[in-house]
Each structure stands twice: as C-alpha cells, then as structure tokens.
Amino acid sequence: NNRSRRDQHRRAPDNITRSKTLSIVARRQDMLFSSRNWALRASPVATLHPDAEQAVAQAMQEGASPEQVESMRVDIAAKRATRMEQIIADRLAESNYDAHGRAVTLDACKLGTGVLEGPFLKMRARKRYNYQTANFDVEYTPTQAVERCDPFCFFPQPCRHIREADWAFKLHIMPRSDVEALAKQPGFDPLQMARLLAMTPSFEALKLNCVLVGTNGKPDHAALRNRYPVFKYRGPVPREMLELVAADERSRKIVAAMEKDKVPFVFGTVWMCMGITLSAVVDPMEQNGSLAYRV
Known about the structure:
The protein is of the alpha+beta class. The protein is about 40% helix and about 25% strand. β1 and β2 (about 135-150) form a beta hairpin.
C-alpha cells in the first residue's frame, strides 16, 4: 500500500503538461499570427518598371526640376510597394496561411518540430451560378497555397538541416474522394488516375503501421482502411523520365529545351501511389533548387 501511494505521488498529472503546452502555443500564435507582422517599404533608390521610367523621362523633357523628378520616382515606388503589400496579404489570406501556421506551431510545441509546405501551385475550385442553365458552374483557377505537413508523414533526405536536403517524400493518406479531386489538379495523367481508382486501396506493401497511432499507443489499422497511400516527391528527377511521363505541355517544353544542354536532372514533383506514377512535372515554383518545406 505504501509503495502504491508513493507511485501515485510520483506520477505527474496529464493535465499539467497539456495546459502548459497550450499556453505556450497561444503565446507563440499571438506573436506570429495575431496581426500583420510584416510590411513593405519602397527603397530610396528603387528600380522602376520601364513604363514608370518612361513617365519620369517624359516629365524631365517637359521641364520638371530634379527635385520634382525625384519626388515623382519616390511616389511611384511607394504606390507600387503598397499595391504589392496588398497582393501578398490577399494571397496569404486565400491560402489560409494563419491557420496552417498555427497548426505547425502546435506541432512544434507538442513534438519539438513542425513542417510547413509551400508555396506551391494548386487549383482552387470556385462555384458560380449560371442563370441560363440554373446550375452552378465550377471554375478551376491556379493559385499559390501552403499547407501544414504531418511530421510523421514527412520523409526528407537525412541531413543536418532541411536546406541541405536534395529531396523529400510526403505521404498523403487519401480516401477515394480526395484522389478524385486530385485528378483535377494540373499535371495529372487521367489514364493513370483512372487506373489507380480501379484498384482496391491497400497499405500492405508499406511498412508504415506507425503512421497513425491510436490513443492506446498502438497502430490504428482501422484509420488506414480504404485509404490510398499517395506519395509526393520533390527533388531531382531524371530528364528521361519526364520525357516519358510528363503530362503537361509546360513541362514537356522545358524538358525539350534542356535536352540541348544535356541536363541529366530536373528539379520536379512526382506523385505516385501503389506502383503507379500519377504525375511528373517540372516544379512550376522552383525555389532555386531548394525544397518548398520549412521545418
């Protein structure tokens, strides 16, 4: 009895760790995502657009003084900086950057690390009512996006820092509806997607039972039932592979241009599932060969 009482006193209550962690998460979120914590300012020696330079040159020809010309350059640069600041704010709002950033902050406080993916190109569906047909028309427009990446589904090249990684895999555990929605994204081969949807989803070929863990600390096999293990690869892709499987016109043109220079590898994105290559494209938002992940 005395031993059991000592064990109870030594055991830390679960709610203490949870409350402290959530408190730290809330403070970090208030500092990082409570309001716009960034701004753009025009440089005193800004390089203007050719059209703006032409307007300045015309003002000089009309007899404007050097002070007036300099004031005109500063005003044009300030207006363009304000406009660009609003464009960046709109794109961050459309990508729901604050919500994904908060989720990454929660991962960092709970697990010690968080992963944010982006920016990357994504097709966004918008419904518009058609008065002639009395139905909704779905329009797909390309937009920039960011997403929180599950640290347990992120497999980068072993390295000291994510900047040193040449490639990374990201696992998407998708139901059938998400795979069908993925087929509408640019660069996916419709024949390969139809071939995948005709197959029964299975995780048997993967040793990833630790991906989803239940509350009892054991693998949650029920959560993987009827789910497709879709992998997204970012990194160097052999040029010959893109020549064979590239589905979009843009990637084929880039590969054809690189064939003259004999470039062996191209930085691209490949989607695969259950032995089927779904998409292989040149990354439309390549960041100088660096991965679009922030850890």
